[in-house]
Design brief:
By secondary structure, the protein is α/β, with parallel strands linked by helices. The chain folds into 2 domains: about 150 residues, Medium-chain alcohol dehydrogenases, catalytic domain (Quinone Oxidoreductase, Chain A, domain 1, Alpha-Beta Complex); about 130 residues, Rossmann fold. The chain is built from 9 helices and 15 strands. The strands form 3 sheets. Strands 3, 4, 5, 6, 7, 14 and 15 form a 7-stranded mixed β-sheet that branches. The radius of gyration is 19 Å and the shape is globular.
């Protein structure tokens, strides 16, 4: 089989499609024929060698965590031939390959109305948003929630998930994305290019910083008494705050996403009932992976960038 991989850390030009051995499934795993894989900022950081401290080590390396495809083996209630989507756990990557091996929590039935590219855009970003909003920020119906970085891969889904949880959503984005964010369900869209979005009188029950540009020191002034904050960017200060929050000494949280079958099923259910729709900016063949990585690296994508695998 073939896989996209890199043998050294560096710019997008290090990416190559190589012939590799097909992986063998371990106990309680099954093979998936991958048809599409989405890119995430995590993939860019790993390619640059900036996440070795977190366990992303070993070369050559096959990138990718989000995928959609077809089961080659049965796994639990998923028969061979089933259309599935999912996310690789841990720091091993491996989704940008024609075949991968998945655990039971890493794969679920693909939303019926989605093609493989749209389905592949959901698992990591969707579960990141869901676990941040539901589990860490404890969003409840009627809460006022601010989403910073609302037009990105995580942000476009976070706006919709917060609304599905019953919140009144304010999204922060650039001028060109204001209508997009309102169309996705935000009651208010704030343009960060027009001034300080936290300078007004509004106060929030929860603030989710998807972009990593709104640290706790700045965000806390916009929170109500007892308001909660979460970031998706693992900076050193965020790691310290998360450790303190786990012993009730801080209100700032860091979301560390983990794929769960129940959460994948929840995303699919929201797609089915119309409360969640993928936001895909670009779909490229994996032969253009370097171009895709370059675009993701600009941090200007409106939603997700997806590679079709095997084309």
């Amino acid at each position: 089989m073939q896989a996209l991989r890199y043998a050294s850390y560096g710019p997008p030009s290090v990416l190559r499609i190589d012939a590799v051995a097909e992986p063998r499934p371990g106990r309680a795993q099954a093979r998936v024929e991958v048809r599409a894989a989405a890119l995430n900022p995590k993939d860019v950081l790993e390619r640059k060698g900036k996440l070795r401290w977190a366990g992303a080590r070993g070369l050559p390396r096959v990138p990718g965590y989000d995928f959609a495809g077809v089961m080659l083996d049965a796994l639990g209630d998923l028969p061979a031939g089933a259309r599935v989507f999912g996310m690789r756990n841990g720091m091993g990557g491996g989704a940008c390959a024609q075949v991968l091996c998945a655990d039971a929590d890493e794969v679920a039935p693909c939303p019926a109305d989605l093609d493989f590219a749209a389905a592949a855009s959901l698992p990591l970003a969707g579960q990141t948003a869901l676990q941040a909003l539901r589990d860490l920020l404890k969003v409840r119906p009627g809460d006022a929630v601010l989403i910073n970085g609302a037009s990105g891969g995580v942000g476009t889904l976070a706006v919709q998930i917060a609304a599905a949880l019953g919140a009144t959503v304010t999204g922060v984005c650039s001028t060109r994305n204001l209508k997009l964010i309102e169309d996705l369900g935000a009651s208010t869209a704030l343009d960060y290019t027009a001034g300080d979005v936290l300078a007004g009188p509004a106060r929030y029950d929860a603030l989710f910083d998807c972009f990593g540009s709104m640290p706790w020191a700045r965000a806390k002034a916009a929170l109500k008494s007892g308001g909660r904050f979460c970031t998706a960017l693992p900076k050193p200060t965020a790691l310290i705050h998360e450790a303190l929050a786990r012993v009730d000494l801080h209100r700032g949280r860091l979301v560390v996403v983990r794929s769960r079958r129940a959460d994948l099923d929840q995303l699919a259910a929201w797609v089915a009932d119309g409360r969640l729709r993928p936001a895909v900016d670009r779909i490229l063949p994996w032969t253009e992976a370097a171009e895709a990585h370059t675009y993701v690296e600009t941090r200007r994508a409106r939603g997700k960038v997806v590679l079709t695998i095997g084309d």
